[in-house]
Amino acid sequence: MKYIPRNLSRQLIKAAKSFPAVLLTGPRQSGKTTLLKQLFPHAQYVLLEDPDIIARVQGDPRAFLQALKLPVILDEIQNTPELLAYIRTLIDGNPRRKGLWLLTGSQEAPIMHGVSESMAGRSAILQLYPFSTEESAKVSLLRGGYPDVLARPSSAGLWFRSYIQTYLERDVRAITSVKDLSTFRRFIALLASRHGSMLNKTDLAAPLGVSVPTITSWLSILEITGQILLIPPYYENFGKRLIKTPKVYFTDSGLACHLLGVETRAELLKSPFVGALFEGFVAAEIIKQQVNRGKRKELYYFRDLQGLEVDFVVPQGAGKLMLVEVKSTKTPLPGMAKSLQKLGASINDYKCQSVLIHNGKEAVAGQALLPGISAMRLEDFLQVLR
To answer: Domain 147-276 carries which CATH code?
Structure first.
């Protein structure tokens, strides 16, 4: 597959000019290594997964680091977290030199713990997700955005099966002592059937015969390895009694489709999950855009105890909100925007822009469904969101 520029590149280059170290996290196989090699072609590359290299690090970390030629890409740093303290010492010895240490890791939380202790103020931290629709026209609801899947779509099923196996063996075992991987596999499949729903840990625990704390731990694993998004409810009161439970989505729609047994476009269109899958696809695209532009991840949903629900709330700063409803239809109709109209009319302290995102092909950006509510394709919405 020909190299495709990543939208995060500008933030990465900026970070390398400002910090001695840059840590790039994100899901396994999202393209972290390829991106760093492309942006920093003269950097030495070291993969910290080879048993011999790990043994060298553990045996004499100082000697290992002194033998490196800077700048260096240290790939999968979570396998040798003890290096962070020694890298800090080297940075402190020459703090004015920037962009010497380029680190990647697939497990955000464990690495972050080491970074907060050893690299505070010395490292910029960025996150790379699989390809977005803005980066590649090949990204789709059915296949998602993982680079290998886009390069070989005919082998997508085999790739996803292998990915799940590799993910279980490497990341899950590395983070926690999951003793029964078969039950964890069942948990992932069960969670896929709840894609786009409010999180109910008891509902997940009962059919698996595990405890709610176990479900909490397993959800944490999926979240810190970038496999799922937990979208919280919007925290402002609006004078209403609100639901406080997050909604759960798989980050990559292709992986979600695979877990749900959806293999073809025809199956996708007939699937009872198509609406939830499209909703999650939109959620991931919003977050990818925010992260790729160096912004905070700010995405919420709204639901009150009376049942009024809006799929997404996107803060726009200075008292502005974007209210978003998502419908997997090619024909947006005014009745689909009623919840947007009702919530928008009840908010007095915010300036709201309301949008219904549909799955049509025709460019109808700005089409008015109801007063103050526009219908847009996802690609048009992302242009507005910038």
So the answer is: 1.10.10.10
